[in-house]
Amino acid sequence: MTGSGHSRFASQHDVELCGLAATGERRAFGELVRRHGSAVRGVLRRMGAQGAEADDVAQDAFLTAFERISEFRGEGTFAGWVKKIAARIYLRRLHRDRRLGAMTPETVADEAPHNDADAAIDLDGALQALAAAERLCVTMCFGAGLSHGEAAEALNLPLGTVKSHVKRGLEKLRTRLAPDDGAALEGRRDNG
Prior knowledge:
The chain is mostly helical and 192 residues long. It has two domains: 1-102, Rna Polymerase Sigma Factor, Chain: A (Orthogonal Bundle); 103-192, Arc Repressor Mutant, subunit A, CATH 1.10.10.10. The chain is 67% helix and 0% strand. The protein has helices spanning 4-10, 14-22, 26-47, 51-67, 78-97, 123-128, 132-143, 148-155, 159-177, 183-191. Helix 2 (14-22) packs across helix 3, helix 3 (26-47) crosses helix 5 and helix 3 packs antiparallel against helix 7 (132-143). It is globular. The termini are far apart.
């Protein structure tokens, strides 16, 4: 695994790797997949994709990114760019499967077990406690990096609806992830 090809690409910046991949250097793109594959799958899981589906969509996203690598201009991060591609592919699958139509604000995912003695922040567990539409909108806007407008267009929802889902979802996340006394959260707001 530590062959000369791997070490050659491991030290290069994502933008350099994208340039090499645009010239047909598949090993450079392989390094990008190695670096960012788990983050892309993580965003998809937070959006609601389960196991193999997250893997399949991530693979499709990287294939699309490879085919369109010359379109990446380095204005943002490669990771952000491929996450947006993955989110859009996943949303197309949701539309195709007509699962998105069943998502209403009242549809709430099963809550993950919560242990008050565990002080560690469990973002995945907190996201699972959101309504499906809230989880999807929050993850698209903050995990995949889509704007509210891009998320609204992708979901075929009014912009105000997406903004409402994001606002409610973030409020629920703040409440769930805040320490019992709320002091740490207030400190973060004052510093931000």
